[in-house]
Amino acid sequence: MEVVSEPSAPSSPAPSFPNTLATPQAFQPPNQLLPSPPSTAPRTSSPSQLGVPWYVDFRLNWDQVSSAIRLRVEKEERPLPDQRKAFVVVLVDQMMQHDRNPSRAMCHSVVRNIVR
After folding, report:
1. Where is the composition biased (Polar residues) (predicted)?
2. CB within 10 Å: which end of the chain, N or C, has fewer?
3. pLDDT tens digit at each of 116 positions of the chain
4. Do 70 and 62 form a contact (C-beta atoms < 8 A)?
5. What does the alpha-carbon distance between residue 114 and residue 26 come to, in Å, rounded to a whole number?
6. Residue 70: inside a domain, yes or no?
7. Is 46 among the domain residues?
C-alpha cells in the first residue's frame, strides 16, 4: 500500500484587519482602543508573528460593529440582547475569515481576551 500525499496549495497570507478588541481594556470605547487613526493602522500580518496562531492576538474590527453597540460600549453600558446577538454575528464572521471551523479552544481564547 502506497501513501500518496496531495501537493500543498501555495499558502497565501491570512487577511489581517485593523482589529482592536483583544486588549486588556476590551470594552473600553473604540476610540480609546485604537493606538493610531484607522488610516495608519497596519492592514497585513507582521512577518515576525508567523508562528503565533491567529486567535492569540485576534482583534475585532470595530468598523464592522454597529454604531448602536459602539455607543453603548463607549457609555460603559451593557448592549441590549439584540445588539449583543448582532455583536456575536460580527465577531464570528471575522473569526471565520481566519478559520472556517474554529475549535472550541480557539473561540474560548478569543472570548477570554474580549472579557478581560
Report:
1. 17-26
2. N
3. 555 555 555 555 555 544 444 444 445 555 544 343 344 343 444 444 788 999 999 999 999 999 999 999 899 999 999 999 999 999 999 999 999 999 999 999 999 998 77
4. yes
5. 5
6. yes
7. no
Question: What's the pTM value of the predicted model, to 2 decimals?
Answer: 0.58
In a domain, 72, yes or no: yes
> Which residues make Cβ contacts (< 8 Å) with residue 54, sequence separation at least 6?
14, 98, 99
Cell 492592514, residue located: 43
56 phi/psi in degrees, rounded to 5: -70, -40
Q: Would you state the cell numbers that stand for residue 97, as one nine-digit string?
A: 475569515
Q: How far apart are CA 108 and CA 85, in angstroms?
A: 17
User: Is 99 a domain residue?
Assistant: yes
User: How many structural domains does the chain have?
Assistant: 1
**Radius of gyration for the chain, computed over Cα atoms and rounded to the nearest angstrom:** 17
Alpha carbon distance 86, 66 (integer Å): 8
Domain span at residue 96? 15-33+53-116
